[in-house]
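Batch job 17 of 40 flagged for manual review because the log was empty.
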Amino acid sequence: MNISDAIRSIIKPHTDDVLAPLSTVFSETMDREKPWQEYPRPQLVRDSYFSLNGLWDYAITGDRMLPTSFDGQILVPFSPECSLSGVRRNLQPGEYLYYHRLLPEDFCRLPSGYRLLLHFGAVDYEADIVLNHKQVLHHTGGYLPFTADITDFLLDGENHLSIRVRDDTNRTQQSRGKQSLERGGIFYTAQSGIWQSVWLEQAPGSYIKELYFLPSYDNKTVTVTAVIAGSAPSQAPFIRVTAGNRELLSTELSRQKAALSTYTAVFSISEEDFHPWTPEDPFLYDAKLSCGRDQVSSYFAMRLYSIESKAPGDIPVFCLNHTPCFLMGALDQGYWPESLYTAPSDEALIYDIKVMKSLGYNMLRKHIKVEMARWYYHCDRLGMIVCQDMVNGGGSYSMPLVSYLPTVSQTLCNQIRDHNYSLFSRKDETHRNRFEQECRDTVAYLKFFPSIAIYCPFNEGWGQFDAVRITDMIRQLDPTRLIDSASGWFDQGCGDFVSVHNYFRKLSIPAEHFSGKHLKTCACPAGRARFLSEYGGLACQIKGHTSVDRIFGYKHYDTLPQFQEAYSRLIQDSLLPLKKKGLSGAVYTQVSDVEEEVNGLMTYDRKVIKIPVPAASEQEL
């Protein structure tokens, strides 16, 4: 183990550092008056749509009462902490962030029998939705979408929409990801408020609220489930499936007796029309579902994720469609210099995915953040497998326990049981229960997207608790995905992977310490696959492309040629030989630099790709 590199990487807050302005080309070319006009929900597209992204009035106060005057204007959907919002002010614990705007009068004039739905992609962290001085909805949680039916609150003429937000970030045990009010090292600037699209939608009195596709790869069948909201439909939903311009089938859905608002159908894909989804060939079937006056468009894919042992005695490996598939992954923090959690534009999301594909990566680990739906949609259509983390919470973490001890002895860490809530900063039962509910809601939200292969409930012991039980819960919610129960260390002998982080030692295949004990929670009877779920972190600062002079990384290189040579040796000499010995995948840290972390394959502003892009891929970027 390289002790000097390990000591150098000790995490310290750097609250006195001022981040220099830094921007990507995407914010330089975006529409500053009407950002993010793309349809926000590609998995369920309805023609009726009005974006509320743009300039809103805002105020930050210590008073719960709605303000009568405002501090200025904020550009939604960007957080007040970031430069793109036009505010660049941190929301402090105990403060309230208020938004206000008028709703469009024409769009609020509804056809007879229609409802007006107000959608939020995500608001961090607690939000009260107020229309015309009447409370419509209270929502808690900073990473998932929610909807309010505001029809009964509308007035003739002007309609005033107000939103009150509170976000205490890491001052409480709420889920927060990498956000910290004391940024530094691997923890980043906190953000708050609206950070994904806000939009209006007109829907009939009986409308399609949810739509899911469950493919059975082996049987070449698909189960489609639709949830109908509002009044009882006059006729059953009807689905049409197409491939290109050719209609493959059409069928009516049947109402389920157990849930009268739920309709399902099972249909087959013929041998001739069966087209598996892979990263190399990310084929999507198109679907249109109609229910009375309502119609939505959607898509699905035929694919299967599994852990399989191809011969007796072999280490089980990750498979896509029953074929061994090495997960060449990269850690994706989802941070942007001018806009923090919110990508400057749809093109920015696409660019990151395309760059990583061009560099030979077929998987992204979305790290303790839930992205907007369009990111998963682009992974679906571009062919990028996703490992999805749940968002961590809990109290202040004991870094000697969750960082320094594992660096010295992972074997010792694997002997520590995670029902010791105090040890893992999880003493508060209310927030443990809230985390479980957020896990359930995250799976319900993301199970639609075909590219998601793995759920990861816990990372490096940050707020970890009851991993065996949480793994079972996620498995019951979505048995079609695999689970990396405890990424890094504090393995509880459950899930589908022996998952290890290795930044300072020679790379090796993670050893199984729980042989035979974990099989009841493992998808493969032969055991768990081996997964190097974080490694690398090679650091190289590119002057003029960082937001702070202080730098962080796991092994530092002064020049780009030195960095490129070290990266090539790491991949070719250390990683790829392990693939032949049974390693299922590895996640390189990371996609881009973030604040003082300079261990990205791209700079924070995405203007420099630190390793050569193959000539054949350059024209696609």
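Reviewer: the log was empty due to a logging misconfiguration, but the result itself is present. Residues 178 and 197 are 21 Å apart (CA to CA). Unflagging and moving on to job 18.
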